[in-house]
Write a structure and sequence with these properties.
- This protein has 24 helices and 28 strands.
- By secondary structure, it is of the alpha+beta class.
- The strands form six sheets. A seven-stranded mixed sheet has the order 16-28-27-26-17-24-25, sandwiched between helices. A six-stranded antiparallel sheet has the order 8-7-9-15-10-13, with no helix packed on it.
- α15 (462-482) packs parallel to α24 and α17 (528-535) packs antiparallel against α18 (541-550).
Length: 797
């Protein structure tokens, strides 16, 4: 019988727990040979102050025993896609390093030139977790630089999407151009109107007055037809389709202000109100930019290229060498290894293969394929390497088509309500303005045009249009500070509508890093390396915990075969032995003895024993559930067995639906049934096995230990440590909606008061033009300040 004490001490380099045998060097303890090697390099190069900045600042280092792992970086075509600049001597490259987490990381990475003399400079952008490198190609290579980074635990995120041929975000760039143009013209129009503001006379000749007025006309044209083009186009489309939205009255107000001003300039009766018109457009565009910038730093809908390798092994003349996936042609033969994603639709040339399509479909069971079958892009190989014949190029494959056809499922009822209000608001304004024109044409024709234009200008629902983006944008900013990153502003509204919460268990309510592992059974001292190699192939949380327990400092070995059965266990062949780990039902002879989570082990048909894993639930779980229970319906879905049911029943209380042994498909069906019953459902999960349920729910919340790591498609990415703030965030979202309703009321009150004066003919267009942007500013200040004060009061951060 083998008993191992777990978490005896911490690694001096990375701070992780040291399971199993300790590695001692120079008076310090390390968890693996990689961390020891990193420490050795740092001390050899007199960089010891690295450890003075923070305690245990490093990352756990994976051993790269395969010398060809980064060989593809020597290929000219690959380097061409990655390098931002090269003249044959100096090269520049930017690499994504998700592992950057503290000031020590920055210090070490910006001193790489002391570790590799070929590196000229390195600069870290902490917010984007990116390093910008310059190096001398005569002294070092891109491959050597990447291997150096990987040797310290900073493995660059290099995939097809990280190459430098990405198209710029032309939409955001165009918005900046429009704002810049509107701001430039706004300032210059005010400057040229200044003499008339203060009533300058005398030497200020009439021809200069006329010149400045016509210059204002020229300056307003590009703002109206370029900066405001989106609003103009939207209004035109709305009129064509007969579905009026808020942009229609906004454009009517712009048109009334423009033509009234143009009439005054042509007739010489006044200077017009071009400054108010351009200022109004400028503030509208600022609101749009404010909303966009709140979630710019996170990618919620990652492109399929983000998951594909930059290069794949291509077989040619009985040899294999790296080839960029974008250069693969139909009829090429490629080699895909275990756990790699198939980059393009291909024909299987090997005898058989096990393909996991859960990444694409959410289905749990691996698909058994035989020679001649078509394997689709996005499938992940589970087992020995296979040879494939390319049938379609990467951009024409199934996964690429799936991504292109995937529409944004998030919709906003609030925006729909605003459009409905805008429709009837527009109709009402047209009726009121027409009535005003006819009345004054009969009573006093001199006031008819003045009153008509005043009504259209003062009734512009700009405040109504700005209240939504500024409130939700501010809410998104505060939520991101608290660790909840929203995909879209409409998610704030959806949060306020939720009435049923569904939680996953493992990785969501539990903390894998704090779990305690204990082995009981026959001695595994002679097979620890092989066993470690087997469990390292699985991404399941329990497999990762066992790998840490065994000490994943052993060399990664190539398996003869590997199959993972979701919800059951894994089976692998290595060195002519067969290893099976999994549930009691999966392993012959395995018997459950207590309520802890157990992973049983069988080697060559002989039952060895089991790993008992004492699950550590997140701190404050009971308080979290208690706060939510009184306000929401709640359910629990878990792919694990029901061993923890008794404890979880105490946490959730009687009457709550707790389901165990749930496959990914079962979770998805459960969510679908809840929605069919009229519930607005939020699914809170963490892994790919929750992907189907997250997509099926009205609101998907993906819990992650690191927001930069891969997360399933979801509406919210939340840091695991702030899960207990969920009740506060749900209350905050409801109150944010109340702020919008109050802003709507302010906007309507302003319009009613303004219209009452405009219809009487006592409100001139100039006063109307001043009130129009003033009302917008008032609403912007009210929504922004109210939302910020609410966030501070509720202590979101």
């Amino acid at each position: 019988m083998t008993n191992k004490a777990t978490y005896a001490t911490q690694c001096f380099h990375c701070g992780d727990a040291v399971p199993g045998a300790e590695i001692e060097f120079n008076g310090h303890i390390f968890c693996c040979q990689g961390c020891k090697g990193a420490y050795h390099i740092i001390t050899e190069n007199n960089l010891c102050s690295y450890y003075d900045i923070e305690q245990s600042p490093g990352n756990q280092v994976k051993n790269y025993t395969d010398p060809t792992e980064f060989a593809y970086l020597d290929e000219k075509s690959v380097k061409k896609r990655l390098l931002q600049f090269t003249d044959g001597e100096v090269a520049k490259v930017s690499l994504k390093l998700p592992q950057i987490h503290c000031s020590s990381c920055i210090w070490l990475l910006e001193n790489l030139n002391r570790l590799n003399k070929g590196i000229l400079s390195s600069r870290v952008n902490f917010s984007s977790k990116t390093i910008h490198l310059s190096y001398n190609e005569q002294k070092t290579s891109l491959r050597s630089v990447v291997e150096l980074l990987a040797g310290f635990g900073y493995v660059p995120e290099i995939n097809l999407d990280s190459s430098n041929d990405k198209k710029p975000n032309t939409q955001n760039r165009a918005l900046y151009y429009k704002i810049g143009l509107a701001g430039f013209c706004f300032g210059n129009i005010m400057l040229m109107s200044f003499p008339e503001y203060i009533g300058v006379s005398g030497d200020f000749k009439a021809e200069f007055v006329s010149l400045f007025r016509w210059l204002n006309v020229l300056l307003v044209l590009p703002v109206l037809f370029y900066s405001a083009s989106d609003y103009l186009q939207s209004a035109i489309n709305a009129v064509k389709t007969g579905i009026l939205n808020l942009d229609v009255p906004i454009v009517l107000g712009m048109a009334a202000l423009f033509f009234r001003s143009l009439y005054e300039v042509i007739s010489g009766s006044g200077q017009g109100y071009f400054d108010s018109l351009v200022g109004f457009i400028f503030f509208l565009l600022l609101g749009k930019l404010f909303q966009a910038r709140t979630y710019r730093h996170l990618s919620f809908e990652r492109d399929f290229k983000s998951f594909f390798p930059l290069a794949v092994l291509k077989k040619q003349d009985q040899e294999t060498k790296p080839c960029p996936v974008t250069e693969l042609q139909v009829a090429d033969i490629i080699v895909v290894k275990n756990d790699q994603i198939i980059p393009c639709d291909s024909l299987l040339l090997s005898a058989n293969a096990q393909i996991d399509y859960s990444f694409v479909t959410g289905e749990a069971e691996p698909s058994a394929q035989k020679m001649g079958d078509t394997l689709y892009a996005g499938g992940r190989l589970a087992g020995p390497s296979v040879e494939l014949l390319v049938e379609k190029r990467v951009e024409n494959g199934y996964l690429a088509e799936l991504w292109r056809s995937n529409k944004n499922r998030t919709s906003s009822q609030l925006s729909a309500m605003a459009d409905t209000v805008g429709k009837y608001f527009t109709i009402a304004i047209l009726i009121v303005s027409t009535f005003t024109l006819l009345y004054w044409w009969w009573a006093d024709p001199s006031k008819a045009i003045l009153s008509f234009t005043s009504v259209l200008i003062v009734a512009c629902p700009c405040a109504l249009a700005l209240s939504i983006p500024f409130t939700t944008g501010t809410a998104m900013r505060w939520l991101s500070k608290s660790g909840f990153f929203l995909k879209h502003s409409s998610v704030v509204e959806k949060l306020a509508q939720i009435n049923h919460l569904v939680f996953d268990k493992t990785g969501t309510l539990t903390e894998s890093k704090k779990a305690r592992v204990h082995y009981e059974g026959l001695s595994i001292d002679g097979i620890e390396k092989e066993l470690s190699a087997v469990v390292q192939q699985s991404s399941h949380p329990l497999s990762r915990q066992i790998a840490n327990f065994l000490g994943n400092n052993t060399h990664r070995q190539s398996l003869d075969s590997f199959v993972e059965y979701p919800g059951k266990g894994i089976e692998a062949s290595l060195n002519r032995s067969t290893y099976r780990l999994g549930s009691s039902e999966f392993i012959q002879g395995g018997k459950t003895r207590n309520t802890s989570t157990e992973v049983h082990l069988e080697v060559d048909g002989t039952y060895y024993g089991c790993f008992r894993i004492a699950i550590a639930y997140r701190k404050g779980l009971k308080k979290l559930v208690d706060q939510l229970t009184s306000l929401y319906k709640m359910s629990l879905l878990s792919g694990d067995s029901s061993k923890e049911k008794e404890y979880l029943q105490q946490v959730f209380g009687l009457g709550k639906e707790l389901k165990f042994n749930q496959s990914p498909h079962d979770k998805e069906l459960f969510i679908k049934e809840l929605r069919q019953q009229g519930n607005v459902v939020a699914m809170v999960g963490d892994g790919l096995n929750d992907a189907g349920a997250l997509l099926e729910s009205d609101l998907g919340v993906s819990i992650t230990e690191d927001v930069n790591n891969f997360t399933p498609a979801s509406d919210i990415i939340a840091k695991a440590e702030v899960l207990t703030k969920l009740p506060t965030i749900l209350r905050f979202s409801k109150k944010a909606m109340h702020i919008i309703y109050v802003a709507f009321a302010i906007s309507f009150a302003y319009n009613i008061i303004g219209l009452s004066f405009a219809m009487q003919g006592v409100l001139s267009p100039v006063v109307s033009a001043i009130l129009m942007p003033l009302s917008s500013i008032t609403v912007v200040l009210f929504t922004t300040m109210s939302t910020s004060l609410l966030a501070k009061k509720m202590q979101l951060t």
